[in-house]
Design goal:
Largest sheet: 6 strands, mixed
GO molecular function: ATP binding; ATP hydrolysis activity
CATH superfamily of the largest domain: P-loop containing nucleotide triphosphate hydrolases
Keywords: ATP-binding, Nucleotide-binding, Transport
Protein name: ABC transporter ATP-binding protein
Distance between the termini: 30 Å
Strand order of the largest sheet: 7-8-9-5-10-11
Bound molecules: adenosine-5'-triphosphate
Number of helices: 9
Number of domains: 2
CATH class of the largest domain: Alpha Beta
Structural class: alpha/beta
Helix content: 25-40%
Pfam families: ABC_tran
Domain ABC transporter: 31-261
Length: 277
């Protein structure tokens, strides 16, 4: 079976045919969750989650509503800490993290480019980028998502899909190597959602971005199979990892890949799992 991997240096896709990939390559983790449990007050949410997120992979997370998927991302972002005994371990070259939420959360009084510049002037970014660099980074990021001509538009002058592209540009502007996405396209119509799915894959595959790893929470089985290398299936709360299902589809993923026999087989396997949750 042909399996495609993203080459670390160039970002180009390589077909490795008839090779047992698991044994041929030792995969390095970008982020590891080790024995992670977490409760809010007395309510247990995560129950001993163990997960390796590999460098250069596109990982999706599926699970019932309220099971703790966003909580898992917040652990990776260091916004929450696991209960005693749990650890979030980052890979050897300390990946930088970017985050995209379900809603774009743009400042309505700032233009698209000013929204991005603002994010580059906050927290640790503040020390990293001068004003001039922030402007250049913001312009570059807008170009990546194809919205350079809308840089002076305010959020209310942009469609929902365009606003979400600005949110992606904002996350990419600081050159993250790991991008965490919490149902980023959940609020969009199907047409826009599919378009942005392929745009995101193009950005991840492109040598123009520093992106190596994407972790995306989604409610859509179809989206998880179309986008990812592996799908993590979570159980209802208190949540653990039920299974991790590889998606043996070639890359680049394209429109029409739904006709690939592995697409329907993987969708079927995931549906069976969801039924038993
Ligand atoms: N800050 C908080 N304080 C108390 N409880 C919280 C907090 N944040 C989340 N929870 C609870 O933790 C559980 C998991 O929430 P989380 O948002 O991680 O789930 P989810 O799987 O992302 O849900 P959905 O798919 O509906 O977005 C829920 O029961 C929620 O009520």
């Amino acid at each position: 079976m042909g399996v495609s991997l993203r080459s670390e240096r160039s970002g180009h896709m390589t077909d490795l045919k008839e090779i047992n990939v698991t044994s041929a390559l030792k995969r390095e983790a970008a982020v590891t969750l080790k024995n992670c449990s977490l409760s809010f007050d007395t309510v247990p949410v995560l129950n001993n989650v163990n997960l390796d997120v590999y460098k250069n992979e596109f990982l999706t997370i599926l699970g019932p509503s309220g099971c703790g998927k966003s909580t898992l991302l917040r652990l990776m972002l260091n916004l929450l800490q696991p209960d005693k005994g749990g650890e979030v371990i980052f890979g050897s070259d300390s990946p930088s993290l970017g985050m995209v939420f379900q809603k774009p959360v743009l400042m309505p009084w700032l233009t698209a480019i000013k929204n991005i510049e603002l994010s580059l002037s906050l927290g640790t970014n503040k020390k990293m980028f001068s004003k001039k660099e922030a402007r250049e980074k913001a312009e570059g990021a807008l170009q990546l998502v194809g919205l350079q001509d809308f840089k002076n538009h305010y959020p209310h002058q942009l469609s929902g899909g365009m606003q979400q592209r600005i949110a992606i540009a904002r996350a990419l502007a600081a050159d993250p190597t790991v991008l965490l996405m919490d149902e980023p396209f959940g609020a969009l119509d199907e047409f826009t959602r599919e378009k942005l799915n392929f745009e995101l894959l193009r950005l991840w595959e492109s040598a123009e971005t520093s992106l190596s790893t994407v972790v995306m929470v989604t409610h859509s089985i179809h989206e998880s199979v179309m986008m990812s290398d592996r799908v993590v299936m979570m159980s209802p709360r208190p949540t653990g990892v039920v299974d991790i299902i590889p998606v043996p589809l070639p890359r680049p993923r394209e429109v029409g890949m739904e006709d690939h026999p592995e697409f329907s087989r993987t969708v079927h396997e995931l549906r069976k799992q969801v039924k038993h949750l």
